[in-house]
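User: Okay, second chain of the day. Same drill as before: sequence in, structure tokens out.
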Amino acid sequence: MIQETIDELNSAIAKAKEALQRELAKIRTGRANPDIFDSLRVEYYGSMTPLKQLASISVPEPRMLLLKPFDRSAIKAIESAIAQANMGLNPSNDGEVIRVPMPALTEERRKELAKVARAKGEECKVAIRAARHEARDMLDALQKDGAVGEDEADRARKEVEEIVKAANAEVDALVAKKAEAIMAV
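Assistant: Same drill. Structure tokens below.
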């Protein structure tokens, strides 16, 4: 019973960290990163389609993204979707491919993006705390029902706290690494 509770806690923490990593990947740094287009959708034949399903994305240079549409008729739609996405990007096409130069970030913009990364980290920590609260409630219920003894429940609570502390440290490390990448010129 206790192990199931701890397994659920570990699973919830792992999901929260995966979500954080996905969110951090979307925040752009000074270098070109195809992950910034993960959530971008393009209107293609009447339906909103993820950009990654319409084009291959490569990084030929550190500050350039190259998109090669699978269907050349989608070039204009892809280009306008990128321009309208409020990412501060200015795509250009030559009829075959779309080049997206990544402008250098200003110091002010870098600080804003670092704040966004820290906010995403805090959201992850909130999810971890919610999972901890849920695990503690389950342990309390098990103890109240008499399924486990008080000593076992106390040991399990200490283990839960250690797991949460380690997870929070990992989240801090991920956010610090991303903030460092954002602030690097």
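Strands lie at 41-44, 47-50, 55-61, 64-69, 92-93, 98-101.

User: Thanks, on to the next one.
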